[in-house]
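We keep the chain:
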Amino acid sequence: MVVGFVPNNNAHCLAQILAIYLSLYMHLNGKGSAVPFPGNDKSWTISSNDSSQDIVARFSIYAALRPEKAGGGRAFNVADRAKPSSWSTKWPIICSFFGLKGTGPATDAPQPGPYIQEHREAWIQLAQEHQLRLESLDNELANPGFQKYIMQLFTFDRVMSLEAMREVGFAEEADEKTTWFCAFNRFREAKIIP
């Protein structure tokens, strides 16, 4: 999964879906509120590697400038860290950006897409109050498909080996907080979230 910022909407951008959802959740429930993970016990604990758009971009440039090492049709997994993490690690970090407390899965946990649509009028008021770009809501974000796959239905580990990337000399890493906060700050700067 690539974590990053998109300026003109993308239903496959989990960072955008979560940014709008958690901004709205904080607005309606207040800072410090608990937000249950919108997945299940199994998806909460699976391991995976996130790939921030910045690490992907920097590795692409690094590889392009070193064809003697990275050329010749080689393929590379690119991720922020060789050590995978789980939603049980990421969710509390993600929620903390919005002043919320991320908790484990619950059977009645709100689902981001439907929650956004259910509270559409509240989002419009919030957007007007903060002079946000309203077109961010009028797109495929209402379709919870992508978020549902990533956070509920992917109940298997998705761990990548970064051995080839390290072999050519690229050692940069980023932790979950750096990756997700960078994306959320970009959405904030673009006036997509308050």
Notes: The CA atoms of residues 80 and 173 lie 5 Å apart. The radius of gyration is 18 Å. The first strand starts at residue 2 and ends at 3. The chain is about 50% helix and 5% strand.
